[in-house]
Write a structure and sequence with these properties.
The chain is an alpha/beta fold. The protein folds into two domains: 3-56 and 300-386, Aspartate Aminotransferase, domain 1, CATH 3.90.1150.10; 57-297, Type I PLP-dependent aspartate aminotransferase-like (Major domain) (Aspartate Aminotransferase, domain 2). It is built from 14 helices and 17 strands. The protein has helices at residues 3-6, 45-48, 57-69, 80-91, 104-121, 141-145, 150-153, 171-177, 201-214, 265-268, 284-297, 300-317, 340-351, 373-386, and strands spanning 24-28, 31-34, 39-42, 97-101, 128-132, 163-166, 182-187, 190-191, 197-198, 217-221, 245-248, 259-263, 321-326, 329-334, 353-354, 356-359, 362-365. The strands form four sheets. The protein has a seven-stranded mixed sheet, with helices on both faces. A hairpin with a 2-residue loop joins strand 16 (356-359) and strand 17 (362-365). The longest helix has 18 residues, at 104-121. The protein is globular. It starts with a helix and ends with a helix. The model has no long low-confidence stretch (mean pLDDT 96). It binds pyridoxal-5'-phosphate. Residues 47, 103-105, 108, 136-138, 188, 192-193, 221, 223-224, 249 line the site of pyridoxal-5'-phosphate.
């Protein structure tokens, strides 16, 4: 039966996604397979999630093992996988504590609430949060309010109050925007959705200094750029600053839904009992998968191989336009205003290579960190054919 007869307008799911006419039934390593057994090279990774490839055996094993032992309790009780994951994340980062939830948007909601609670706990009325142009922090109301993109926000007004937007490349504007009313500055160190853009160091330094001057928190959203995606375990490690709070999700669970908000010692305590929560947050199966995924993602050899592959890809992608990004988080602003959506569609339908478009002429590649130069060559050959000459 044709996919259009099963899905399309006949689908029982809400219509909030413009899906492609492909249905995947299986994944293994860098590949996805449809019901006919056709193989697709996944250079998008479920939007930055399957960084270790599909159905990594060690992650599958962890999920199987944990799901035979304990699937859910609630946050009224301690469970070993959540504590183990919190320790692994805090041992490897600036943070002293982790809060677990189920997605990137939820992690950002927690960070927004932490920042306001921190100010509140300090007896301050500061409630404003400074965000950057072209930011993307998620679709829930708080995270959406921190996402200054007209098309995403307009249908959902009124938004949460208190977000102030500054250009993403202007250090002086950042300094001027932070005032005694500011409780936080929220930044993706490498922006991913409106193109791929690494925030300049001087903007990050200005944000850090301005936060310190008024006692506000610097929050890094590393939901997409973290966990090895942009060339180091955490993106902040390549910048001249250390944040107070960091949010993670996407690759953290090796494909299972999990988000985390990590906070430094001086502010982690702002979320007191009863201030915030999530029924499924810290789920034992998700945390068991994440423990294994994080261990693999933190491997220095994987990091350096992924970095090399990033350079290899970036160099060759530059034949098609200007390349932006870091590590394996790459955007290509195509020459001559070529329609990126059409290129993505040709890549998928004619060449069975998965990428996406983040702007009218901007392509984005988020290959798995385990991809090889041979995989990259397959994608590059397909791209050369998909781009109209
Ligand atoms: C930087 C960033 N923050 C937050 C989110 C939202 O994450 P989620 O879709 O898991 O809620 C995304 C998703 O693309 C993202 O790229």
């Amino acid at each position: 039966m044709a996919l259009s007869e099963i899905y399309g307008e006949a689908s029982a799911q809400t219509g909030n996604y413009a899906r492609y006419g492909v249905e995947f039934v299986r994944g293994s390593g860098v590949h996805l397979y449809d019901a006919e057994g056709n193989e697709y090279l996944d250079f998008l990774c479920g939007l930055g999630v399957t960084s270790l490839g599909h159905c990594h055996p060690a992650i599958v094993e962890a999920i199987e093992r944990q799901s035979r032992e304990l699937i859910h309790t609630s946050n009224l009780f301690w469970t070993p996988p959540a504590e183990q994951l919190a320790r692994a994340l805090t041992d490897r980062s600036f943070a002293s504590n982790a809060f677990f939830c189920n997605s990137g948007a939820e992690a950002n909601e927690a960070a927004i609430k932490l920042a306001r609670a921190y100010a509140h706990g300090n007896g301050s009325n500061a409630r404003e949060i400074v965000v950057l142009e072209r930011a993307f922090h998620g679709r829930t109301m708080g995270a959406l309010s921190a996402t200054p993109q007209e098309d995403k926000q307009a249908p959902f007004t009124p938004l949460v109050h208190g977000f102030k937007t500054v250009p993403n490349d202007d250090a002086a504007a950042m300094t001027a925007a932070v005032t005694p009313h500011t409780c936080a500055v929220l930044i993706e160190p490498v922006q991913g959705e409106g193109g791929v853009f690494a925030i300049p160091d001087d903007v990050l330094i200005a944000a850090r200094e301005a936060c310190d001057a008024v006692g506000a928190l610097l929050i890094f959203d590393e939901v997409q750029c973290g966990l090895g995606r942009s060339g180091s375990l955490f993106a902040y490690e390549q910048t001249p600053v250390v944040p107070d709070v960091m949010t993670l999700a996407k690759a953290l669970g090796g494909g299972l839904p999990i988000g985390a908000m990590l906070a430094a010692e001086h502010c982690a305590g702002a979320l007191q009992p009863g201030y915030h929560g999530s029924t499924f947050g810290g789920n034992p199966v998700a945390c068991a998968a994440a423990c294994v995924a994080f261990d693999l993602l933190a491997d220095a050899e994987l990091q350096s191989e992924a970095n090399e592959l990033g350079k290899y890809l970036a160099e060759r992608l530059s034949a098609h336009g200007s390349v932006q990004g870091r590590g394996l988080m790459l955007g290509v602003e195509l020459d001559q205003e070529i329609d990126a959506k059409q290129v993505v569609s040709d890549l998928l339908n004619e060449h069975r290579v998965i990428a996406n478009a983040t702007g009218p002429s901007t392509l984005r590649f988020l290959p798995p960190l385990i991809a090889t130069t041979e995989d990259a060559d397959v994608a590059l050959t397909a791209l050369a054919q998909a781009i109209p000459s």
